[in-house]
């Protein structure tokens, strides 16, 4: 992708937006006016370090203005590098994951004509599926599959995929890479593509989680220099699949730690992707189905419900996006097969209130602001037939469109393809289809901008859980407490709360990015002396205490079998106040602030005020029981 550049303005407007929030932060009540002003300036400098600087306007080789890539997230929104909201309005263009292993339509029209149809509809991005088998096929594609594009003759499927990516991005259309299937076949039934790996069958292609990771790392590095390749959509519709050559269901889970743990697989791969290509968004779809489908007609569709108990954490916190799918002919416990669905309700059979409440509980809740799980949600598949005569299908699509607009969510229609009954272009791929009943709701959705292009400001909250292992949300990969389970906040975030069962709340509220530029840190563990740094004396008599030095704050904690065993103290990029208090929570919740939501449901928890930082932790009998809250 060749680009042209021009300068655009700086960040003054964003700084002015932040001033009221910065003015609310308080230090020692006895600080002088000069100290207060100095603190405000330091805070302002810290905040501006977090704001992506306005850089250069990019243009494609054809003169099309491009978004300010790379993209990131800020709270519930995807944003560009100027911190302006980028609304992902996408369409799916499939074929590379299917039998022919080539995006459909290249036998009908030149690729530039197809790209023009995507632009004509008003989409700014394409979700582009691929199969793992396609990546390893070194045979030339059939000439018949690219007959309208003879320049692709003799290319391998992956090389044609390369050319498709280039044609889209040269036109200013963003591309989301999507691992749709393992085998090159139609998706998505009770087959061999439900999980991200497939082993134990007589099929020619077997894969492991390691092979899946390797395929993805090849792809993210392959397009590393094309910044309009914006995201890696890790896997399509994770669901129960056939175990080996049997019809025994092999079901995914979320958090068990075994080979079928989709949370672990997605998080592990997400870490590797952010290390290899930190510009990419990492898109994690929820679980589309778990349980015994379709043999006994049992199971359910959890989508993103498990996120509330166990969010995905990446070491680059502003790169995670969740996704979900919705179709009228399926339902929360309806697999779409009339013979095995047990008559369970479909989404198209729901009245408007039931539909809204259902999708909110499945995935809509994730975009609620200032929660420990708040993340953008991309509804990356939905669609309907233009020839349907069922009024329920039409009402379902309108219900979904209304919900996407009301919640200002990102989306991707399924599909573009003219070879598909549900496609948005004609069967000869020569024109857009805007003369059927779907046009009205789709046009309503495409023309609704929400707060697109507006600067985004959000405080951020995330939880940590180290009951079963490490939970590292930081790019600090040091083993700072060898042999212990460790939880580490995102870079610059501070610990704001801790529970007795080893869960924590991290945030940047009021302080912004707090970590010093030199990334210095200090570890206080059971082997340390009981030095008091804050002039508070024995602030938790009879309890084991870990306390950070002055101008350090708690950004992580560790545990061994007997309980809390240490804290990670990060050096602050400013002088921190020294007015401290003990906050006890050994006999019940004690939360000075309740922001972030119920981040440790079922356990006693303590949470400092928004204007405070945690300077120390006290524990006894294996349980954290008090926080030293300072300001």
Automatic annotation (TrEMBL):
It comes from the Bacteria. GO terms for molecular function: hydrolase activity, hydrolyzing O-glycosyl compounds. Residues 91-419 form the Glycoside hydrolase family domain. Gene3D superfamilies: Glycosidases. Residues 1-23 form the signal peptide. Belongs to the glycosyl hydrolase 5 (cellulase A) family. This is Glycosyl hydrolase family 5. It comes from Leptospira fluminis.
